[in-house]
Amino acid sequence: TQSTRPQRLLHAVQKNATKGDPRSVVKAIDNFCRQKEWAMNVGDEKGCILDSVVSEVNPVTVLELGTYCGYSTVRIASLLPPRAKIITLEFNPDYAKIARQVIAWAGLEDKIQVVEGPSGEWIPKMKEQFGVKTFDLVFLDHWKDRYLPDTKLLEDCGLLRKGTILLADNVICPGTPDYLEYVRNSPRYKSQYFKSHLEYTKAEDGLEKSVFLG
Ligand SMILES: Cc1ncnc2c1ncn2[C@@H]1O[C@H](/C=C/CNC(=O)c2cc(-c3ccc(F)cc3)cc(O)c2O)[C@@H](O)[C@H]1O
Ligand SMILES: [Mg+2]
Which helix (H) or strand (E) holds 210? Predict the structure, then answer.
């Protein structure tokens, strides 16, 4: 049977990356997507912006919406302090399966919890099921029309605190107009746009960093 693109991406990691070396896993995926097949990872250019935000926030509790193959999950987790954790939500079981193997190859299983299911169902359960008080950083990279409803859900569930950082991928391409309008005009957020390019291309895209003001 024909393999899927995520399966081919995983094989490229297992072939070209050093087991237990997260940065080599990131490099292997970026090389695969540049040289072989484009895939919707945040990529190396926006990834550097992601790295700088993670390093600046130094989060203890991170939420990622949309794991896909685990590229940004590994990228974030590789920068976290020892006891810090990232919970990543993914509702496609095939993608979750691939992501777990990419994460295992990077040796980051202890820092990452892949939770299978829709974000809308899991966000309200974060406190009771995972003992989360509030998140220090949220990375949004799932279906673009879910960014705004999930942000409002996070607010309503009391999962954001004064100073929580929301970092959203693809605010230009494919675009998240309703989310952008909200975080840029709501008095509850201070928002900043980081101009970049769509992963592995010359098209414009960027990340929006929004601080929740409480
Ligand atoms: C509510 C819910 N709950 C749980 N998991 C959820 C979920 N909604 C989606 N997921 C999961 O997250 C990933 C989906 C990511 C969607 N990302 C994009 O569509 C995307 C697209 C491009 C792109 C740009 C230009 C083009 F021409 C074509 C594609 C670039 C990107 O960077 C993207 O992120 C995927 O793994 C999906 O299963
Ligand atoms: Mg994306």
Answer: strand 204-212
